[in-house]
């Protein structure tokens, strides 16, 4: 069972378990992709890395869609080889671009990714420090990421041993169905009062569907 509510003007859907949240999110992404493909030859899906969306990726990989018409890219990536353990591309290839979704086209995150936007759906994650994509509060490039007019920004942060490439807020908001996946009470509490955090810029930019579970 889900409960509809609001957090900072965003649509909140609360689920009893992370599995249930992942399943409902996968269905929402499916809906967004099919809607886009009814109007256009191709659809773009923007996804985050990290552990939170992995179950959703695995569910999506089992869903029958015209994956050969779908481009998949990342909201952010660590600047490591594609086969590196910390690579988000590796995470997608192992958990999403397989089984029924093996026909999807992976598009590396780089300047020029704007040609694939607006996306049908953009799945964004959020850290306990309020960062989204790789727009970290301690990053010298945070302001550029939030206000810049490029598609991507190169990011360094003391929070990570790797430099990163991240979509800017400008490019992240070029989506028809923005979704945020968050787990745990700490993140839920942050979203109740997000004004001091980077995530507030996203929540103020557009209505976001939030999928939450304990």
Low-confidence runs: 1-6
Q: Can you tell me the overall shape? A: globular
- The amount of beta strand, in percent, is 15-25%
Mean pLDDT, all residues: 94
Sketch the major β-sheet.
Answer: 8 strands, mixed
Overall number of structural domains: 1
The CATH architecture category equals 3-Layer(aba) Sandwich
Taking all Cα atoms into account, the compactness measure Rg is 16 Å
Structural class: alpha/beta
The DSSP helix count reads 7
CATH topology: Rossmann fold
Your description of this structure?
The structure is a single chain. The chain is of the alpha/beta class. It has a single domain, classed as Rossmann fold (3-Layer(aba) Sandwich). It is 29% helix and 23% strand. Strands 1-2-11-10-7-3-4-6 form an 8-stranded mixed β-sheet, with helices on both faces. Strand 1 and strand 2 form a beta hairpin. The protein is globular, with a radius of gyration of 16 Å. The two termini are 14 Å apart. 47% of the residues are buried.
Features:
7 helices; 214 residues; 11 strands; alpha/beta; 3-stranded antiparallel sheet; Rossmann fold; 23% strand; 8-stranded mixed sheet
Sequence-ordered SSE layout with sheet pairings:
Blueprint: E1 3-7, E2 10-14, H1 18-39, E3 43-47, H2 54-60, E4 70-74, E5 76-78, H3 88-95, E6 105-106, E7 121-125, H4 142-147, E8 152-155, E9 164-167, H5 169-172, E10 178-183, H6 185-192, H7 199-205, E11 209-213
Parallel strand pairs: 2-11, 3-4, 3-7, 4-6, 7-10, 10-11
Antiparallel strand pairs: 1-2, 5-9, 8-9
Helix pairs in contact: 1-2
């Amino acid at each position: 069972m889900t409960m509809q509510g609001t957090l900072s003007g965003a649509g909140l859907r609360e689920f009893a378990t992370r599995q249930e949240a992942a399943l409902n999110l996968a269905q929402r992404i499916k809906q967004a992709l099919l809607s886009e493909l009814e109007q256009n030859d191709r659809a773009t899906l923007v996804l985050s890395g990290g552990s939170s969306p992995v179950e959703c990726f695995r569910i999506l990989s089992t869903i029958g869609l015209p994956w050969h018409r779908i481009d998949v890219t990342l909201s952010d990536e660590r600047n490591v080889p594609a086969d590196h353990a910390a690579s988000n591309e590796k995470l997608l290839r192992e958990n999403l671009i397989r089984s029924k979704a093996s026909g999807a086209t992976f598009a590396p995150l780089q300047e020029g990714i704007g040609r694939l936007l607006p996306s049908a759906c953009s799945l964004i994650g959020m850290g306990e420090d309020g960062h989204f994509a790789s727009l970290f509060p301690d990053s010298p490039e945070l302001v550029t990421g939030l206000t810049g007019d490029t598609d991507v920004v190169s990011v360094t942060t003391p929070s990570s041993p790797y430099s990163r490439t991240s979509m800017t807020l400008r490019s992240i908001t070029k989506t028809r169905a923005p979704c945020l996946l968050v787990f745990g009470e700490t993140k839920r509490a942050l979203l109740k009062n997000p004004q001091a955090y980077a995530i507030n810029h996203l929540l103020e930019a557009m209505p976001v569907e939030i999928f939450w579970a304990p």
